[in-house]
Amino acid sequence: MDALVLTPSTRSVTLTFVPTPKPGPGEVLIKVHAIALNPIDSLYVLDPVAETDRVIGTDFAGTVAELGEGVRNRKVGDRVAGFVQGACSTNDRPGCFAEYVVSPWDLLWAVPASMQPREAATVSMCGLTAAQGAFYRLGVPLPPDFPTPAIKSASPAPLSVKNATVLVYGGSTSLGMFALQLLRRALPHAQIIAVASAKHAQFLSASPYTADTVVDYRNDAWPDDVRALAPQGVDYALDCISEGATVERVHSTLAEQARLAVFRSPSGGGFPADLRVSPIYGAVWEGLGHDVGYNGGVLPADPAARAFAVAFDAYLSLHPLEPNPTRLLDGGLARVTAEGFALLGGPMVTQRSQPMVDGVTLKHLSGEKAVYEIVIEP
């Protein structure tokens, strides 16, 4: 099969013909129809986790092509989506920027007929990241029909506040859009404040995001605007950027007993860890249920985090999230590193410059996700 393979020693990616993976016990082989790009995909090329050649790529959607031993509730031809950690150094699991990928059968969700693969490919990794931040780490009450046994006993109980105020910084990011949807499902009567570009205000105020207020992040006084909306302080906050001053500014809006989720470590995001309300951090990779290379070390397998991920995929199969708006790029796998990675920009959102390819200036990604089709849908 064709795949995008990282050579860590040269930090280069080439389109290479490699053997098609075989599904092991409890796994399925998926024919990849579409992939979505995440900043981590280009980061793992610039700063490789892997020590030997690996297929890169995280988010995918496709159809089940082959079943491994002991697989339940899946059949050949099923439309599914999921994510993997491409370019992982602690095992030989390949990524999904390829014609085929292998995944555990229960870490996939069923894509409805009404959703295109290129749309479904946007959901899995950032959707689970948002769910982990809100429910698994902050203790926001689960939405209806979410499998409750998935919450680990160490997860905090919900705050004892009526009609909580929730802040999502970076509301128009992929992560932010999924967080807004999940929070509104879980807290229908909460005041939800999104901090984002003013150009996205109407979009984020409408269904399914339904932010009560969108505050313009370009206004340096936006924390004052939030404090005016929530005089007692914000109860739950998710900083979907988690870089430098964003964490401290979000923190400045919090109530005394608030909870704050961040999605970078203090060292990776460049913010202090010793704040009054301690930022709660975790990695989405914990949900994969096996050791993964991360931040110069190894995240050990976490059965509780995997159980939550399985429950989230079961929830998505019954109650899909609205996919991110997409920017469909031409050229398939061959254009991912040249064009797609240029659109992603550098590893820090707040330091990204204007993307260019072959001397041509590209429109920034804003409120949308870059996707490629591997199999062109009719």
Produce the secondary structure layout.
Blueprint: E1 2-7, E2 12-17, E3 27-36, H1 39-46, E4 54-55, E5 59-67, E6 79-83, E7 100-104, E8 109-110, H2 117-120, H3 124-137, E9 165-169, H4 174-186, E10 191-196, H5 201-205, E11 213-216, H6 222-229, E12 234-239, H7 245-251, E13 254-262, H8 266-269, E14 279-281, E15 292-294, E16 297-299, H9 303-318, E17 326-329, H10 336-344, E18 356-357, E19 360-361, E20 369-373
Parallel strand pairs: 9-10, 9-12, 10-11, 12-13, 13-14, 17-20
Antiparallel strand pairs: 1-2, 1-4, 3-5, 3-7, 3-20, 5-6, 6-8, 15-16, 18-19
Describe the 3D structure.
Helix content is 23%, strand content 26%. With 378 residues, it is α/β, with parallel strands linked by helices. The protein has 2 domains: 2-123 and 323-373, Medium-chain alcohol dehydrogenases, catalytic domain (Quinone Oxidoreductase, Chain A, domain 1, Alpha-Beta Complex); 125-286, Rossmann fold, CATH 3.40.50.720. Strands 3, 5, 6, 7, 8, 17 and 20 form a 7-stranded mixed β-sheet that branches. The chain has a 6-stranded parallel β-sheet with strand order 11-10-9-12-13-14, sandwiched between helices. It is globular, with a radius of gyration of 20 Å. It comes from Cutaneotrichosporon oleaginosum. InterPro entries: ADH-like_C, ADH-like_N, ER, GroES-like_sf, NAD(P)-bd_dom_sf, Trans-enoyl_RdTase-like. This is GroES-like protein. GO terms for molecular function: oxidoreductase activity, acting on NAD(P)H. Residues 9-376 form the Enoyl reductase (ER) domain.
